[in-house]
Amino acid sequence: MPLRITILGSGTSHGVPMIACDCPVCTSTDPRDQRTRTGGLFSYDGHNVLIDTGPELRLQCVANGVRRADAVLYTHCHADHVAGLDDLRRFNWIQQQTLDLYSDGATAERLKQMFPYAFADDPDYPSAKPQLRLNVRTEPFELFGRRVQPIHYLHGRLPVLGYRIGAVAYCTDCNFIPAESRPLLDDLDILILDAVRRRPHSTHFNLEEAVAEAHRIGARRTYFTHIAHELGHAQTNAELPPGMALAYDGLVLESD
Predict the structure, then answer these.
(1) Which long-range contacts (CB under 8 A, 24 or more apart) does 177-182 make?
(2) Of 218, 142, 171, 169, nearest to 3 (Cα)?
(3) What is the CATH code of the structural domain delimited by 3-255?
(4) 54 and 36 in contact (C-beta within 8 Å)?
(5) What is the pTM of this model?
(6) Quick check: helix, strand or coil at residue 223?
(7) How far apart, in whole angstroms, are the C-alpha atoms of residue 132 and residue 102?
(8) Of 10, 58, 120, 210, which has the fewest Cβ atoms less than 10 A away?
(9) What is the biggest distance separating any 2 CA atoms in the chain, rounded to whole angstroms?
(10) Spatial contact of 246 and 11, defined as CB atoms under 8 Å apart
């Protein structure tokens, strides 16, 4: 069965269009320039594995016809990647089961701080809440019959996890890939990689850096995500090397 990855969101922490911005990208009529906060979905063997739960998770799931979620892989604890956690309770109701979350230890602790009601055993809590189980995993593990390979890299000074399943790797919020992580990105069919804008950024690859990294990694197909309003979809794609393109909300890719 092929592995499918859906780009649920391709935008930065502000989203595109940004609040109170009249720039050409924020006012563009090209739907590929409308970017919700970054997130993804691995689908394989009848299972759906979310990558992060951004603020627009509900809208992303509705827009992309996501009717079940079997687990969540968290990259890190920033609000634009976790703020939609409460929406997971809908999948608890549909599937009548607890949902497993996978992250590093720091992200697990921050999730408990940000959403204490979701992880506390409080029978008097006055409203519905998600039923979740935190799992700290920073080394390879099996999930629904396939190997999940966490990939360690840096987002500024913050350690972040990317994830590889099969020949597909998802690496958002990144500006440095250490030497020990590079072999984990060998022989990729699809790479999803951070590329925030043209100007340098202190915690993200800019477009020039991302293209250089994509050449170095050598995936057969590379799609850039976590995109700010400085990069118009059509214009930027026209400038990119063969085999590289900007991702967009709703993009669906398959790998054998």
Answers:
(1) 177/153, 177/213, 178/152, 178/153, 178/154, 180/152, 181/151, 181/152, 181/153, 182/217
(2) 169
(3) 3.60.15.10
(4) yes
(5) 0.97
(6) strand
(7) 10
(8) 120
(9) 57
(10) no
